Amino acid sequence: MANRLKQKWRSGKATVNGWMAIPNGFAAEVYAQGGWDSVTVDLQHGVQDYLSMVTCFQGMQPHGVLPMVRVPWNEPGIVGKVLDGGAYGVICPMVNTRQHAEMFVASCKYPPQGTRSNGPIRAGIYGEATGYQKTANDDILCIPMIETREAIDNLEGILDVPGIDAVYIGPSDLGLSLGIAPKLDRDEPEILKIYERVLSETQRRGIFAGLHNGSPGYAARMIRMGFSFVTISNDSGLLLQASRAAVQTVRQEAEGKV
Questions:
Q1: Which residue segments constitute the domains of the chain, with CATH numbers given?
Q2: Angle CA(132)–CA(42)–CA(4) in degrees, nearest 5?
Q3: Quick one: DSSP state of residue 23?
Q4: Residue 127 and residue 60: Cα distance in Å, rounded?
Q5: Residue 37: what are its φ and ψ, rounded to 5°?
Q6: Residue 245: exposed, middle, or buried by beta-carbon count in 10 A (0-12, 13-18, 19+)?
Q7: Active site residue 45
Q8: How far apart are CA 2 and CA 93, in angstroms?
Q9: Strand runs (DSSP E) across 31-162, as ranges?
């Protein structure tokens, strides 16, 4: 499967990403039919593990969404393993320096561009027509997270690392790092100024910028601002929102009988 996110970004289009915390293949099968361009399995803050990630990928696969993973940390073993399991993109948290970014990219790339070990036990099944190892370095998305004051201070150095396709802003951790409350949809002037700087620096280098959002309206606003990659909440959050809205509607329209 070609990396359609790269294709859309290069054509000037933004993409909408789903986010999975629920470790269940049927949930992934249903969720993947929501119209997402990609779906990211969250191994950092969700309740997913490696086997549930693979099961979720299997549930997604018939529906054409691009499978991605947020790894729990910048550790070469887990980065290589999620790629071997079939991830077409890796989002890596807490990349705060150029050295962190270099280590992350090296973990994603086969030699000579990197140090990834060969053994795409599942991913290779879907790359036999062209040879997975021949295309993986070009197809895999390497996406470090920018989510701390330190990362902002080192932004240009991080972005100058060869092999980075995009960066992904974590608004909650960014807020914590700056001494303000963690949340997703932010309007603080100092945060919006950081977003503008990230967009300017990425666009200058032909790199793309992504952002985690709490609501569809804010995500659309961020696309208009210039972001190419937006996530809306996650599967468990959207499930809770929809459930609450449904129950509230019944209670309001049942005229006191519930």
A1: 4-253 (3.20.20.60)
A2: 40
A3: -
A4: 17
A5: -75, -35
A6: exposed
A7: yes
A8: 25
A9: 38-42, 66-70, 89-92, 141-146
- Phi and psi at residue 29, to the nearest 5°: -60, -40
Which H or E run includes 207? none
What integer pLDDT is reported at residue 214 of this predicted model?
98
Q: Which residues of 51-86 are buried (b: 16+ CB within 10 A; e: fewer)?
A: ebbbbbbebbbebebbbbbbbeebebebbbbbbbbb
Q: 100-141: per-residue pLDDT in tens? A: 999 999 999 999 999 999 999 999 886 555 689 999 999 999
C-alpha pair distances (Å), 25 with each of 30, 40, 55, 92: 9, 13, 5, 23
pTM of the predicted structure, to 2 decimals: 0.96
SS3 68: strand
Helix orientation angle between 50-60 and 76-84, rounded to the nearest 10 degrees: 30
CA separation for the pair 96, 166 (Å, rounded): 15
Average pLDDT, the chain: 96
* Residue 69, φ and ψ in degrees, nearest 5: -140, 140
Catalytically annotated residue among 45, 63, 100, 212: 45
Instruction: Locate 64 and state its tokens.
Output: 């054409």
Angle between helix 216-225 and 189-205 (nearest 10): 50
